[in-house]
Structure formats: C-alpha cells, structure tokens
C-alpha cells in the first residue's frame, strides 16, 4: 500500500524500527491526478485491504487520470464486483475489465465522485462499505448508502467510523446498521469539531498541526490556521 501511495506521488516515510509511517497529504487530490492524463499502473500484490479502499479513493481523488489496479494471480480471484457496482451507482467510470468481478480494476477519472444513493451488499465483506465510507467525504455531493442484506463484521465498520471521527468526519447511520449518510466535501474542513479520545495526543501540541484550540473540552473545537499537510501514525497504538 505504501509503495502504491508513492507511485501516486505522495511523500511517504516508513520507519520499520518504530513501526511508524508518515504520509504527507496533497490537498484532497493525488499528485498523479494533477500532473497528467497518462495511465497509472498500481501493483498491490495480494493485499485486498489495499485494493478495495484504494479503488474508491482513486475514484474520488484521482483527478482525470486513468488507473489500473492489479496484483498477484491470487488477487485476481478475490471479488471486488460489489464495490465496483456501488461506485458506478455514484457516477464513477470503473470496471473489472476481464469480466470476472475481480481485479484488475480500471478507473477512468472524471474529476471526482459525483455522489448520490447506492445500494450495497454487506454479506460478503464489510471492506466494500468501509471503502465507500472513507471515500465519500471527498465526493462532490452527499452519499447515501443502503445495505440490502445483512452487514457482517459490524465491529470493523464501527472502527472505521471512529477513525473517520478523528479526522473530523461524522457519519450518520441507522440503529440496525443498514443506512449510512456521509456529507460530501468534508475531506478538508476549515473548522472541524473532533470528538477526541485519549488516542489523539496531537491536541496537546497544537503548533505541530498549525491550529488553535478555542475550547479545551471535550468536545474540542479546533480552528485551522494553515493547511494540515502531514500526519504521523504508529501501528503500535491502534493495533
């Protein structure tokens, strides 16, 4: 996944000693989406947890560039058709061009993810829902997701929503986890309200993220003073 992000033009530092990675943001659009309309090929090995969310992210933040996402032979047996169908319902130009509902996946960038309503299966993998949820804040319009069957692995979806809250994005959902609403254009709020937990230690050092704290809460109110362009995260803290 980190190598794919580098290919997309992001600055990535991976410290295996401290088990930390630093990914420098690019303002809501992958650099490859700004530079050219050439086709970008991404090889993701057998990492399904990279293939699925990255597919959705590229639709939302890949600009007008064409992308091909592929992997090892085993990856070509791992289904992604439900996610592709969901992205198409939201206006994306994306397909499994071998006709197998598995990678390789082709994305033809259209300048963003339009948004809208989508019906999605949750019975095969919660990763399809997770991918849509994480890409939806970058959509041009609101995204409404309806699960048409039983959603499996609800705890993983809860983890996704809690992580999104740390970035200032709050997802509305029904009590039985079959309907979700994400407001588009929330990928970079200028004055976000974070529901902080003990895991968000950067609130203790506002100069590092160029922000001012107007309410020492909780809840915490943070006013951006300059763009947040870098986040550091460590696997030891969250795994």
TrEMBL record:
Residues 1-187 form the Enolpyruvate transferase domain. PROSITE patterns: EPSP_SYNTHASE_1. Keywords: Transferase. Transmembrane segments: none annotated. Gene3D superfamilies: Enolpyruvate transferase domain. InterPro entries: Enolpyruvate_Tfrase_dom, Enolpyruvate_Tfrase_sf, EPSP_synthase_CS, RNA3'P_cycl/enolpyr_Trfase_a/b. GO terms for biological process: chorismate biosynthetic process. GO terms for molecular function: 3-phosphoshikimate 1-carboxyvinyltransferase activity. PANTHER family: AROM/DEHYDROQUINATE SYNTHASE (PTHR21090), PENTAFUNCTIONAL AROM POLYPEPTIDE (PTHR21090:SF5). This is 3-phosphoshikimate 1-carboxyvinyltransferase chloroplastic-like. It comes from Trifolium pratense. The lineage of its organism: Eukaryota, Viridiplantae, Streptophyta, Embryophyta, Tracheophyta.
